[in-house]
Amino acid sequence: MFQLVEGLVKEKILELLKKKTYVSGSELSRKFNLSRTAVWKHIKALRRKGYVVEAKPRQGYRLVKTPDLLLPVEIKAELKTKIFGKKIFHFNEVTSTQEVAKKLATQGFEEGTVVVAEKQSKGKGRVGREWVSPLGGVWLSIILKPNILPHQAQKITLVVAVAVANVIRRLYGLDAKIKWPNDVLIDKKKVCGILVEASGEVDRLNYMVVGVGVNLNVNPATVESKLVKTATSISEILGREVSKVEFTREFLVEFEKLYKLFGSGGFNQILEEWKKLSETLGCKVKIVSQNEVFVGEALDVDEEGFLLVKLPNGFVKKVVSGDVYVRKV
Ligand code: BTN
Question: At what angle do helices 244-263 and 153-172 cross, to 10 degrees?
Fold first, then answer.
């Protein structure tokens, strides 16, 4: 309880610092019923978080710089969503936001709860692979409780990919594409990976955790791994760093919009958008799944989100999961 109140006071102080050029110590102590020492303690705590707050005798405190960290108070400012991001957990470093979000989901945290981290020490990629997550990226997981059956979870992965691609296109004017099912690529290099994990029984879904990792301001060479052979990042392409907070806010808005559309029966509309953004359809592909490797032509994605591949013998095979490699013809 004490912690929460402390946090709230800090948020209120920050709000005021953002509104006015100088805020005097006496104004802060009067407004929030704090001693001058307590005010100073809060200012020091803000500085420790990365805010640059100048203190001038007789004038007071001035906010000089806001850090581009995924702090809940920054993401929530002007966040135009109804449910996504109403509750945000932030970590400077965590093993995996996915693991934290799953724990929160089992504790009953509501749909739309978000977990973000500046850095992950054990980031998780698809099929248990490692996901390298240094400072500079957006590493985020969100709890969902959609009214679908577990085998329909695949559809959500396509919805997330469309949301990420749309935001990259809109904010930075870059030609983001999607490789089935949900890698977001720019110039054929991976800029974002999406991991969707579901918990439930065959006929009942308890919750889903959607993990999104976006290379915003990272050096691509530092995130390449066995999983990601060729990576890119927004900062590398644009030649400048971009705001992680702005990206996160826009993503939550876009994803919530598409998720609502999905919930009201609009999956086909989203699938059409996915197809327009697809880097896979119409290409010769090699599919590497758990049990087999085969080649063919990526024909279409069906209404469940599965990839339809035409084999050299003319048969059409439904691909439920696996890695897709687009081949040069
Ligand atoms: C992939 O392409 O293999 C999926 C990568 C997903 C990475 C994100 S980063 C945020 C969330 N936390 C994790 O540990 N993984 C996902």
Answer: 140
